[in-house]
Design a protein that fits this description.
Structural class of chain B: alpha+beta
Radius of gyration of chain A: 23 Å
Strand order of the largest sheet of chain A: 1-2
Order of helices and strands of chain A: HHHHEEH
Helix content of chain B: 25-40%
CATH class of one domain in chain A: Mainly Alpha
Structural class of chain A: mainly alpha
Strand content of chain B: 5-15%
Strand content of chain A: under 5%
CATH topology of the largest domain in chain B: Fumarate Reductase Iron-sulfur Protein, Chain B, domain 2
Shape of chain A: flat
Largest sheet of chain B: 5 strands, mixed
Number of helices of chain A: 5
Largest interface: A-B, 28 and 38 residues
Strand order of the largest sheet of chain B: 2-1-5-3-4
CATH architecture of one domain in chain A: Up-down Bundle
Shape of chain B: elongated
CATH architecture of the largest domain in chain B: Orthogonal Bundle
Number of domains of chain B: 2
CATH class of the largest domain in chain B: Mainly Alpha
Oligomer: heterodimer
Number of helices of chain B: 9
Radius of gyration of chain B: 21 Å
Helix content of chain A: over 70%
């Protein structure tokens, strides 16, 4: 698509184009939350890599698994994992809250309210977490 | 003495300024006055050179969108009293070039709007003798919310993505495309998807959600865009598994 706005400016040099500050995301709480959600994607990716490392270590036997646990005891790994836990939680909550915007579910002639769609996401989260916890701790 | 409030109005007179400056005016503040009434008072009584757009004064025409104390608002639906004791800062809508004072250029949106074909597209038109294209109330409910858009541009002013990347088609144009996609009489969804599945289309949106928050008509453009993304993804999967069509 042609860059229409720039094209216009060429013929209207007197139009004022206010500068957008680099720190625009600090102007409003919602903008800041948005940027935080975007950044949290990096930590979500790290969490996936970390889980894969654990699965790999478990598959290679107790010695490799023990080595991974030793490596994970380093302060910087603990700090990264704590931040990841918080941001993965934040990412999940914002995602579940946004889900009703993208999903329109119909039951017969009635639309399922957004709150029900969000609640069902949270419920699924709790159930899956409980199953995983049961497998790891009690299974 | 009746209540008064100070308006700090952004002025940009290209023949004498290279940047916008604020001028302060004191206006009456009865409980039934909106920001637009304040601006009209300035124009009629204090400074006739002030430029701004307005028309219907009842939230229908979408002309009087401005930034009021940092938020995009329809000035005909924003009461001065809510900002008492003031001051009330009135600026042009963000993310658009300013022509003069509070008047911005909307040409960019107008060109994008046409690209998404916001009208009913039919592959074959019925002859007039065959009568109207009938629609049930349920079918109308599917798109009615998106048809309430008045092109006031508050959503574009609130969208940081549009501000940073003016190539982005933007919330209102996508919501209006969705309005026609959901219309049972329309057959143009595939044509629109070609345009909207470009990088500057639906995928440009990173779901900040501000467009929906500022919309004065509860159109929910953010929802329209996310639903469109879901449709586009499903269409891609379908075309992968069923390249010759279902």
């Amino acid at each position: 698509m042609a860059h229409i706005a720039e094209h216009y400016t060429e013929y209207h040099p007197r139009w004022l184009r206010p500068h957008i500050s680099t720190y625009w995301w600090l102007r409003k709480r919602s903008y800041f939350a948005f940027i935080l959600r975007e950044i949290s994607s990096l930590f979500v990716a790290w969490s996936v890599v970390y889980v894969l490392l654990i699965v790999y270590a478990v598959g290679r036997g107790p010695t490799v698994y023990q080595e991974l646990l030793e490596w994970s005891r380093q302060p910087w790994v603990i700090v990264v994992n704590v931040i990841s836990l918080l941001l993965v939680g934040f990412h999940a909550v914002t995602w579940f809250n946004l889900a009703p915007q993208a999903l329109v579910v119909r039951l017969g002639h009635t639309h399922v309210p957004g709150a029900v769609i969000s609640a069902s996401n949270y419920a699924a989260w709790v159930v899956v977490s409980a199953i995983v916890a049961w497998i790891i701790v009690g299974g | 003495m009746s209540k008064r409030i100070k308006l700090q109005v952004a002025r940009y007179r290209p023949e004498q300024e290279s940047e916008s400056v604020f001028e302060e005016y004191e206006v009456p503040c009865p409980s039934d006055w909106v920001v637009l009434d304040g601006l009209n008072h300035v124009k009629d009584q204090l400074d006739g050179t002030l430029s701004y757009r307005w028309s219907c004064r009842m939230g229908i025409c979408g002309s009087c969108g401005m930034t009021v104390n940092g938020e995009p608002k329809l000035t005909c639906a924003t009461f001065l009293d809510d900002y008492a004791p003031g001051p009330v800062r009135v600026e042009p809508l963000r993310n658009f070039p300013v022509i003069r004072d509070l008047v911005v250029d909307l040409g960019d949106f107008m060109q994008k709007l046409v690209r998404v074909k916001p009208w009913i597209v039919r592959s074959v038109e019925k002859p007039l003798a065959a009568g109207e294209y009938l629609q049930t109330p349920e079918e109308m409910d599917e798109y009615k919310q998106f048809s309430m858009c008045i092109n006031c541009m508050l959503c574009y002013a609130a969208c940081p993505i549009y501000g940073l990347d003016p190539k982005f088609i933007g919330p209102a144009a996508i919501a209006l495309a969705q309005r026609y996609n959901l219309d049972s009489r329309d057959e143009g969804a595939a044509e629109r998807l070609e345009i909207l599945s470009e990088h500057e289309g639906i995928w440009g949106c990173t779901f900040v959600g501000e467009c929906t928050k500022v919309c004065p008509k509860n159109v929910n453009p953010a929802g329209a865009i996310q639903r469109y993304k879901l449709n586009a993804a499903l269409e891609s999967v379908k075309s992968f598994f069923l390249p010759r069509g279902a």
